## 1
Amino acid sequence: MHRFSLRKDHLWCEQVPVSKVAGAVGTPLYLYSYGTLLDHYKKLQAAFKSIKPLICFSMKANSNLALCRALAKAGAGFDVVSGGELRKILGIGADPKKIVFASVGKTEGEIEAAVRAGILCFNAESVQEVQRIQAVCQRLGRRQMVILRLNPDVDPHTHAFITTGSRANKFGMDVRTVESILRRAAEFPDLELGGLHVHIGSQILKAKPFKEGITKALQVADRARRYGVSIRWLNIGGGLGIVYRRETPQTAAAYAKAVLPLLKGTGLRIILEPGRFIVGNSGILLTKVLYLKESHGKQFAIVDAGMNDLIRPSLYGAYHEIVPVIQNQSRSRRRVRYDVVGPVCESGDFLAKDRALPPLKPGDLLAVMSAGAYGFTMSSNYNSRPRAAEVLVKGKIWTIVRKRESYQDLVRNERIPAFLR
Ligand code: LLP
């Protein structure tokens, strides 16, 4: 499943002992396995090989240039949601014809940049957005494919914050709105309304909700043909769940087995937009124990990574396994329950609560597992903490793919006004 393993009580990433990298680069540190990243991309590709979909890696999960470049070289396309992601991915030579642009709030500037770049399509989320894309295309004299994001109103049975395809969510459009746009296709002469998009949420463990969403989209596609609109593309989104703890998510093969019967024979070209499935298990966050303390009978392990580095536990109550990087057999049988907390001044700043770990001491290195997706990309400078470094491991080679931020970086864009000098 991933290429992090214990060898003689030491955690290794591929052919590199993790402690060696932490010693050289310092902590907190994101460490990624190139092999694991590519394995997951290829697993999905293999599962769907009978229909050769366009797999657009969802950059919001991890937009590190080196990782994106590795996926681009393997043939992946990209799902971008901002002008920033678009700039980053074009900058590393990704093929614009494999880029899809989602987001409920694309600005005119972002739309223009994407049209000029010649992206494959926008995933449009409102009538007004479609009108704006039309206006931009008319002004630029360009033709552009737009696919309409349907909100199919299905429950993906995941965390409320990452549910996106039910009626309470801001995402997509209801069936009636999508169909009304398709009927009025003539009002958008510079757009090719060539497809539909459904993405119902993230960390989804079962195939059923995916099937429900796809079925609804296919019904709309059928009706659209009746108004003479040719729907050629179907983007079935991302959302595949991964193992963080004891989850038993569907494998890529099981997912494909469940949805392929719906897709085959439709003549539609399929787009997938996975983020977490590809990169989630490929990365870990390394942190060092600074202090241990007992307070009111509770044990705290205070570490040098906080909620600014990995916000998932604080924001979603997410579980990430924590593994000591060097495990001393003689003391490993005893377990202490720790709250593993960061240095940030918030009680919500924790990486784990009440977690059974071997007795820790200051200086011990801990690996927070499965932190490759929505780890670094959601990190911030809260408490004026420089963001972590990122390292990519491939076989015996490890290399820094993002420098740790410096204190200079923290103040780079700030100015003291003249009246305060
Ligand atoms: N496509 C669209 C339109 C999306 O909104 C997302 C994720 C994806 C694709 C990729 O989903 P994935 O395959 O990674 O599940 N920060 C949260 C996850 C937010 C997901 C946002 N949208 C977390 O850390 O769990």
## 2
Amino acid sequence: MDKLIIEGGVKLKGEVIISGAKNSVLPIMAATLLTDDACLIKGVPELRDTNTMVKILRSLGKGVEFNKGMVTVATLKNTNYVADYKLVSTMRASFCVLGPLLGKLKKAKVSLPGGCIIGVRPVDLHLKGIKALGAEISIDSGYVLAKAKKLKGTHIYLGGVYGSSVLATDNVMMAAVLASGKTIIEAAACEPEVVDLAEFLNKMGAKISGHGTPTIEIEGVKHLHGATHTIIPDRIEAGTMILTALITKGDIIIKNVLLRHLGALIDKLEEAGVNIIKTDNSIHVSYKRPLKAVNITTLPYPGFPTDMQAQMMSLMCVTPGITIVTEKIYPDRFMHVAELNRMGAHIQREGPHAIVEGIEKLSGAPVMASDLRASASLALAGLAASGKTSISRIYHLERGYENIESKLEKLGAKIWREKE
Ligand code: UD1
């Protein structure tokens, strides 16, 4: 296993290009199971998670090539309907093969993904939606077995205790595209990645409307064909780079971004006193003066993303004043708190809240990555800290940030890898 070493205190400067969105490409790759035709997906980031999805599709009978950001998926043999525990357990998003397998084959056996460090993460909403379409569901030996003679469009309310669910919306939408009649999903997730999936499905011949709003309508079709699609830029990587510029007191131009996907973050940063220069597809962030502490509450899109909470907390650790961070999506997503405190931060956790008292400077320390976004928050903290930070278990970071070390290195960071 590798660890990441960062010598902090360098003001990062230059240009960085954002990769395709991880949370968009994974369900879109799964959607290729809905057709026997070939599909071409462009702008695919080279990540541990995209490689896991390649393995899953291959295990289900697809021929997949992944080269220079392009994924081609073709059908090699009859689609297998069993997604194995060994693969699904390494990545929760692989559960989104359930909807397309059921839609296409009318049967699917997919391992339950289990919880993870950021919370219990149930799949009740996925199963509720799929059941409503007429599938029989049973759970046996850790697998969900779903089967149906035929799927029938219906009205489904998909809201949960913590609001809408991104992957449940994806799964139900993918199961419904080949159902007979009309499906209406209410309380659907509005995340840009859901919209990207719906647009890919429409290119394949689906009839989906309302995506991007809480009510999605799907008019079932008889079959889907192959399609070509380019993945939207990763708004979480873009947000992480904006915060990298600010926490290092640097000056970074971030290219290949869609501003409209970053509204809640940019609004918070403007409240904190940051001046962000925006063009159509780039953002220029330059640190000019000390920021103001701002409170953050994570919410489903278009609210402040839970996937930016940890990184924003790192910035607030070195911003004078008190910040209250409230986590409304994953109330236990605070694994980074103890590690940031090891670097000298003053953070107190109170249930779903963390109270951050900003200090002048963090100090480098050995810390441990616990999940993807927590790792990013530690990297940000390390870049701003005095001295050396070593982050172990960085495979978490590789799940979601393409070429992160070389991107940061090009901006001037002193960052390298060592064996644990
Ligand atoms: C997706 C993202 C993840 C992000 C999360 C929230 C992907 C691959 N991952 O995960 O990066 O952090 O959205 O924006 O897109 N819930 C239920 N029952 C369910 C499903 C979810 O109660 O059946 C709860 C979850 O525990 C959580 C909330 O709903 O509290 C939102 O989760 P959800 O949107 O489903 O997250 P994912 O789609 O798994």
## 3
Amino acid sequence: MLGHSTFRLADGVYWVGSRDWSRRLFDSLIPLPKGTSYNSYLIVGDGGEALIDTVNPGFELELEEKLRGLTDPGGISYIVMNHAEPDHAGAIPHMLKIASKAKLVTTSQGASMAQALYRVQPDRVMVVRDGEAVNLGGKTLRFIEAPMLHWPETMFTYLEEEGILFSCDFFGSHLAGGLYSDEVEDLLVHARRYWGEIMMPFRAMAQRALQRVEKLDVRLIAPSHGPVHRHPKQILEAYRRWAGGETRRKVTVVYVSMWGSTELMVKRAVETLEAENVEVAVHNLEVADVGEAVADLVDSRAIVLGAPTVLGGAHPIAFHIAHLVGSLRPPAKFALLLGSYGWGGGAVKQLGKTLEGLKLEVVGSVEVKGSPTAEDLKRVAEAAEALAEKVRREA
Ligand code: FEO
């Protein structure tokens, strides 16, 4: 395991988290090409100490060692659980043992989750409501409920004297490296991907949270994944755009092809869209990093899905991505569906049905038997032209 260092972020505020350089998958779903970090923070006041969030299971002893380098964990008064997901709360049972007098501070829903997930007994829990605070002596921690960012129990913690917002998953990025976001050259690339994977389904809640954050004097944002934002303007502006569903003249194309027929149709659609001055991001699902496709969906105005039929339905890889898109609720307004089959169709119909909940306008759908003819490809081009027209008009 690399590095057991701690970092001082402000007077009495220390990063004591862990960097997971080797992790490549999150929630058994999300690829992590750059690993991730589990940021935990120690706050030292004149009259008490608090730990904000913990670390992923397996990193408990690293957290303990870091804390012992700064304080006696037995003297910690509060362990703040902003969020109950195990990547931040998995070390809570260990921490409650070594911080034997500490109370677990969480929302009422968090208390129930702490019991269910970590068997934390009620006498160790201090439930806080929105706007309540604890004072550590010159360090006031104010709690702000932030439901669904990322789970219903989630809250932020705001350190008033220093203007530090501990936002847990919100404003995060899956990066093992980099303490400060201004030291990461392509921070927004990673933050956008993370937004798409984690926060995009909750845009309305994100907008509400951003309105509340704007009322605070936030000088530093300390999320629980990835670098700390000591110049919060950049990430705040990006979150305003993404939460607002701002899109560009851009189409994300995701497809899979078995024998090249669907791919021919996709190529014709892509060439047509590009000729119509529309930005196109193409992902062949056979080799694609799904996280990159999701990142492109964050600001795309339309989606093109292409898949052959396998046993009466869409190819399972395409069905998986269609289901994922339906769950992540990107802001796209238009779609084009393409498919091919050898002896029985059905892919396009199934893809359309899977996306029904998104209320996308399906501008065109083309499904062909066998290899597409010149006439078939003309139909694809016409459908892509109609899509380009919609995408441009929406600007
Ligand atoms: Fe990083 Fe929702 O946990």
## 4
Amino acid sequence: MKKIAVVILAAGEGTRMKSDTPKVLHKVGGVPMLGRVLAALEVLKPAKLCVVVGHHSEKVKKEFAGKNIVFVEQARQLGSGHALMQAAKTLKAFKGDVLVLCGDAPLIKAETLREFVSFHGAQGNEASVLSSELDNPFGYGRILRHSSGQVAKIVEEKDASLPVKRIREINSGIYCFKSPALWKVLGKIKNNNAKKEYYLTDSIAILNALSRPVGAYKIRGVEEILGVNSRVELAKAEAVLRKRALEKIMAEGVTVLDPANTYISPETTVGRDSVIYPGTIVEGASSIGAGSVIGPNAFIKNSKIGSFCEVRISYIYDSEVSDGVKIGPFAHIRPGTLLKENARIGNFTEIKKSVVGRGTKVSHLAYIGDTELGVDINVGAGAITCNYDGVNKHKTYIGDGSFVGSNVNLVAPVKIGKNVLIAAGSTITEDVPAGTLAIARTRQIIKPRKKRG
Ligand code: UD1
Ligand code: CA
């Protein structure tokens, strides 16, 4: 592939979002819009990557720090042409193609970008525009073609006459230009239009006047090029990503009972014959193995769930769940937890930063924090690890095969050996050696009952 530089325009204020967050940091599918664009262009392996920032530029730079991006500032937002001009200094010495993308169009696919760039190269165009034909082109710039098929110019909605408004082929806001010729053309753009802005789209008419070849690569539908300018469009973009993610897992052999009520992030993988019940939300880079049953109403984030697991009405985040584990209903699995094979976490149980060994059961109403549980342990209802002394967190260890009775308090730091039996209602403050029985509660006393009245 030819050398390519990429510029992402992301300085616009996004007035219609009515937000304190810069538009390109609004998330779709749990990832900031700009992050989605950056992920899509990764396949192109750009020699240079420039992002034009303006509004709240500090926030944008901070979010994407350390990513090999050259940020250029557009102090005043005078239009998309003016925005691209800000990258001139960085890219003037670059000889090759410059791909221009918008930070507020997060749905573009990697393969489309690849096809578009190779179209541009094969046609020998000075500039190429990615276009689409829409039933409702309202709001987009329209593509005007010569009878030869070459693009003559792009007219913005606000500047369009009625016949132009009827044109259904629109500008996606994605372009490919030859550099360094591009920079000269940008200098010729004027702001004599409805918005008094320097439109990047005017570069096309300028190239035409110079008899330079300009083409358009038309893709199907609006889905990939949907520009997000408002919360309504943000919700539309979210819906597109969601549909894509659900269709991908269904194609791979996953049953989704009610797609309209299921949210799976595009980064999530699910193994075949897993079944997802309604109300399930899986966010971040999560994975679910084969043959698992998830939901109804499971919330899973940044977690790895094994095969043949069951997760019902429960919260799991930043954790790992091995094969055959059953969770819920109403369990809360908090960050740093590892549940090993065939463990069972039942209702109203919270597990935090703990390891639960193979086959161990914590079936009802328990809190396990900063704990290592061995294999085949039974933790009774209402058992609590008292891991916090008000200042520091402390660890609890419980050995293989032990039995922790109901309503036991384990005051950490504390070590319980293997095959220990802890009597119900005990408050354990000292280590318990392997193979012993520990009782730590006052003895029951029975007295005659006083007569009333
Ligand atoms: C733009 C195109 C339009 C196209 C549409 C596709 C122009 C003049 N029009 O319209 O033909 O159909 O995108 O979605 O380009 N930006 C800056 N600095 C500025 C102005 C804009 O960085 O001073 C950035 C924005 O952050 C955005 C992009 O440029 O990422 C496009 O600007 P926007 O104002 O959203 O243009 P549209 O009206 O959507
Ligand atoms: Ca836009």
